[in-house]
Every structure is written in structure tokens, then in C-alpha cells.
Design goal:
By secondary structure, the protein is mainly α. It is built from 19 helices and no strands. The protein has a single domain (about 5-385), classed as Up-down Bundle (Growth Hormone, Chain: A).
Length: about 400
């Protein structure tokens, strides 16, 4: 394995930063949008989740094409679309335009994670893939934290339109680096010609027929949906319930994603060292249930201090949630990694479409943030129950046989 693999990983990390900057960068602007457009929490959540409509819709096609056309082409194409969305969103003038442009942003962001997993498989040996996936995922924590902290600051000084438009600077830089530096890895050519010649429908049918995939699908659907709900409504809770300023609310919420910068790579390192994934996954999924309950039952009334402590705890404890994406790679042969990962990611973001809107409805009905966070805990508990049925993978396991 060439040392160049770390440069590839660094560029992938930068790409995933851009995905999360635009994924959560709208959350601190929700109170502004509610005031400007006169919309409800559920409507604001719909704008937030419009990102996931297109993101979820194209995950399987992106995975299939990443296996067939290569990761570099996919990243360049989709990040180019993200540039268009990042230009169009600040220009939106009403609710409908905001929905459409957020959907365009989600479409553009959809082509980074799965090609990145493909590149990790091509460049890293099996005994390093847990840590490589964890470090790759840390880009999401860095990007999400930067967005939650910097977007409200930029919006306060420049107005939200120009503040959001500033996200184009790192995005264009990343696009240039992908064009200049990304290339296929040593394992890129080790693909089965027979599998490459098969139709997309047949390949997808084979992937979906693997029973071990379905507990992962159900678990990530409920888990990630609850997590996005928590991050979506946390700034509004801290501002309206705990009296924090927009900047402080974004900073505290950002501590959740900041913690993952450490916890995701750490979980990957530990799972590589153990040669096992499931125990790390179950631990973090259980901690997600407790974190949501803490925000519902302990944090209200404690102000900045209580919210800060629980946010830090949450970010540090949920690192194991990256392991399902290592597990799915280890469940399948090389030719099906992108497709199988695309299926899991589709369920992941289907939850991000549905759960935040349900939580927003709870807020609209009773105005209770503790009730909303308790609902998040319930969804995380369903995820934990499903995760208990996942198959242990790790370096000592062989991929499932797909015919």
C-alpha cells in the first residue's frame, strides 16, 4: 500500500466536510426563516429535510455507478451540482424556492460518501479500513461543527444570504483538489468482469436478498433520523427554552458534531484492533438513547452549562455509529460494495426525511422540546433493538456469497 493513500483519505475527508457543512448549515437559520417566512416548525423541518429527498433518492444509483465508473468521476460530477445549489439557495425568496434549492444541494452532496468508501477499499488494506472509515467520517464532524459555529456568525455580520454564500470557498477548493489528486487505487482493477457485465436490476436484487443487510437498514433508518431531528431542533430549543443567543446555541449544538471528530476515528481504531465491529456499534447506539433522554429530562432549566456537558457526552459516545458502514463493506464482495453501501445509505436518509418532520409535528402540537427529544430517544431505542440482530463482521469474517 502506497503512502499516497493518506493523501487520498485527506481529500475524501475534505469532500465529506462539504457534505456536512451544507447538511446542517441551515439549522442555525431556522428561527430566522420562521420569522421571515411566517412558517411553522414542521415547515422549517421540511426545508431542512428537503436536502435528504434527493440525497436518499440517488444513493443506490450513486453506489452502482461508483462501482462501475469509478469514484473520481462521481465526486466531480456531484460536487459540481452542489456548487450550483450553494449558489441558488441564498438567492431563494420564498418557501417553495427554499425547498427546491435545498433539494439541489442534497443531490450534489449525495455523491461523496459512497465514492469515498470505494476509494478506501481501493487504497487501504483490510486491517486499516476501520480507522480509515472513521477518519473519513470525522470530516463530517469537522464540517458540521464549522457550519453550526460559523454560519450564524457570518449571518450576523453579512446577512444570512452572504453568510451562506461564503461556504462556496471551501467547496470550490475541494473540487479542485479532487480533480488534481484523486486517482484509482491498487485494488481498483480487482473487479469481477462477470459482475460488471450484469444489469443493475440483477445486481440490486442480489444485494437486497441478503438477510444480514436488513437489520442494518432498519437500525440506521431510525438512528440517523433521530440524530438529525436532535441537531435540527437543538438550536431553537437552546434559544427559545434556555435563552441562549444564536451564536451560543450554534456553538453548543456544534459540540455534538465536534465530539465525533474524535469518537468516529477512535471507534474505527478500536474496531480494527479488536477485529470486531458489533460490540462498538451496540455501545454507541445505546448511548444515543441515553443522550436523547438526557436532553429531554436533565438539560431543560440548566441553561448553557447543562446543555454543553450533554452535547459533549453525546458527541464522544456516538463514535460507534460509523461501524455499520464498515460492516456493510465487509459483508459483501468487492464488486458490490458501492451498491450495498448505497442501499444502507438510502435507509439512513429515508429516516432523515421522515423522523424530523414527525418530531416537528410534536413541537407544533404541544410546543414541548422535552417531548420532542423523548420521541427521539424512542426512535433510537428501536434502532438499538434492530442493531442487536446485525451480523458480526471484522477482518476474520468472509464476505457473504451472492449468486
Amino acid at each position: 500500500m502506497s503512502r499516497y493513500r493518506w493523501i487520498i483519505l485527506g481529500v475524501c475527508l475534505l469532500g465529506f466536510m462539504q457534505v456536512h457543512i451544507h447538511r446542517v448549515g441551515f439549522a442555525p437559520l431556522i428561527p430566522t426563516f420562521m420569522g421571515d417566512l411566517g412558517i411553522t416548525y414542521a415547515a422549517a423541518a421540511t426545508i431542512m429535510t428537503a436536502y435528504f429527498w434527493t440525497y436518499a433518492l440517488v444513493q443506490v444509483p450513486v453506489g452502482v455507478l461508483a462501482d462501475r465508473l469509478g469514484p473520481r468521476r462521481m465526486m466531480l460530477t456531484f460536487l459540481g451540482i452542489l456548487v450550483a445549489g450553494a449558489i441558488a439557495f441564498p438567492l431563494s425568496r420564498d418557501y417553495t424556492q427554499s425547498l427546491v434549492t435545498r433539494s439541489l444541494i442534497g443531490l450534489g452532496a449525495a455523491g461523496v460518501w459512497l465514492p469515498g468508501l470505494r476509494l478506501i477499499h481501493e487504497w487501504f488494506p483490510p486491517q486499516e479500513r476501520g480507522r480509515a472509515t472513521g477518519l473519513f467520517s470525522a470530516g463530517g464532524g469537522i464540517g458540521g461543527t464549522a457550519a453550526l459555529v460559523m454560519v450564524p456568525v457570518l449571518a450576523a455580520h453579512l446577512g444570512w444570504r452572504w453568510g451562506y454564500a461564503m461556504t462556496l470557498v471551501p467547496l470550490l477548493t475541494t473540487l479542485a483538489l479532487i480533480y488534481l489528486l484523486v486517482r484509482p487505487g491498487p485494488l481498483a482493477e480487482r473487479r469481477s468482469p462477470a459482475a460488471a457485465s450484469r444489469g443493475t436490476t440483477a445486481v440490486l436484487k442480489d444485494v437486497l436478498s441478503v438477510a444480514a443487510l436488513w437489520p442494518l437498514n432498519v437500525a440506521v433508518l431510525f438512528s440517523y433520523g433521530a440524530f438529525i431531528s436532535l441537531v435540527t431542533f437543538m438550536p431553537a430549543f437552546l434559544m427559545r427554552h434556555e435563552g441562549l443567543t444564536p451564536g451560543h446555541a450554534g456553538l453548543v449544538t456544534g459540540l455534538i458534531t465536534a465530539g465525533t471528530v474524535v469518537s468516529w476515528p477512535l471507534a474505527g481504531f478500536i474496531s480494527d484492533w479488536m477485529g470486531r465491529r458489533k460490540v462498538i456499534y451496540l455501545f454507541s447506539q445505546g448511548m444515543c438513547v441515553l443522550s436523547c433522554l438526557a436532553f429531554a429530562l436533565i438539560v431543560p432549566g440548566t441553561g448553557w452549562a447543562g446543555a454543553t456537558l450533554v452535547a459533549l457526552f453525546t458527541g464522544i459516545m456516538l463514535g460507534g455509529l460509523v461501524t455499520p458502514f464498515v460492516m456493510v463493506v465487509e459483508l459483501f464482495p468487492s464488486d458490490l460494495i458501492g451498491t450495498a453501501s448505497g442501499v444502507v445509505n438510502t435507509f439512513c436518509f429515508a429516516g432523515s426525511l421522515l423522523v424530523p418532520v414527525l418530531v416537528g409535528k410534536i413541537l407544533d402540537i404541544n410546543g414541548s422540546f422535552p417531548a420532542a427529544f423523548t420521541a427521539c430517544a424512542a426512535f433510537e431505542a428501536v434502532a438499538l433493538a434492530s442493531a442487536a440482530f446485525t451480523r458480526e463482521t471484522g477482518m476474520h469474517r468472509r464476505p457473504v456469497m451472492v449468486t
